[in-house]
Amino acid sequence: MSNCKVIALTNQKGGVGKTTTAVNLGVALAQQGRKVLLIDADAQANLTMSLGYSRPDDLPDTLSTIMQDIIDDKPVDVSRSILHHDEGVDLLPSNIELSGLEVRLINAISRESVLKTCINEVKKNYDTVLVDCMPSLGMLTINALAAADSVVIPTQPHYLSAKGLELLLRSVSKVKRQINPHLRIDGILMTMVMMWYKKS
Ligand SMILES: Nc1ncnc2c1ncn2[C@@H]1O[C@H](COP(=O)(O)OP(=O)(O)OP(=O)(O)O)[C@@H](O)[C@H]1O
Ligand SMILES: [Mg+2]
Q1: Which residue range(s) make up the domain with 117?
Q2: Nearest ligand for residue 23 CA
């Protein structure tokens, strides 16, 4: 049995630091000697760009091509699409094609488990897989929750961000009940916190 831990970085609220957390946590774990795969599960391709691939639309093989092959029941070679970064992390990149794929997922058989099938192909090679989710609770995020062992929820300490968490926590509970009973919440990670100290 694989010891790999799959962690989804999820929050349907945009701009809360999911991608920044994925990059920094991934590189920090790699520096500690862990084998890390980062998966860009967002059509904005911010994670792919953050790692220096500035023209993701030029990449021939991405998460969407693999997921499409899985939907079409074709044989897949996930490792062929993985990029090896100088910082010691591997990346399964994405590009804008992922938004079209999310629409096609709706009619796919096993539509919740396509990403899990993809991750299962390569997880034996890694200690940690981090999935950077898009800011929505759509099918791709459900796929990430279905594939994950646990969730980290980056959030800003704002009123509306906290209100949005209620919806997210309900979705996580639903996925846990209906699809992935082993799913755990590792924690809510406060991002972009300003510490103010009173001068004495
Ligand atoms: N600790 C921080 N201090 C200052 N700026 C930050 C910090 N963390 C992230 N940012 C900036 O905030 C913006 C949003 O961060 P990021 O892209 O990681 O969020 P996200 O949740 O992935 O966004 P999206 O929902 O669009 O995917 C980026 O411009 C990023 O550089
Ligand atoms: Mg992001």
Answers
A1: 5-190
A2: 1
Q: With a 6 A CB cut-off, is 157 part of the ligand 1 pocket?
A: no
Give the pLDDT means over successive 10-residue stretches in the chain (200 positions). 92 97 98 98 98 96 97 95 97 97 93 97 97 96 98 94 92 97 97 80
Residue 135 lies in a domain: yes
191 pocket-lining for ligand 1 (C-beta < 6 Å)? yes
**Cα–Cα distance, 11 to 134 (Å, whole number):** 8
Asked if residues 135 and 11 have their Cβ atoms less than 8 Å apart, the reply is yes
Number of H helices, E strands in the chain: 7, 7
In the reported structure, the alpha carbon of residue 116 is separated from the centroid of ligand 2 by a whole-number distance in angstroms of 20
- CB-ligand 1 contact for 20 (6 Å cutoff): yes
* Residue 200 within any structural domain of the chain: no
Instruction: Work out how many domains the chain is built from and give that number.
Output: 1
- Tell me how far the alpha carbon of residue 44 lies from the centroid of ligand 2, in angstroms: 7
| Domain CATH number, residue 67 | 3.40.50.300
Q: Is residue 116 part of a domain?
A: yes
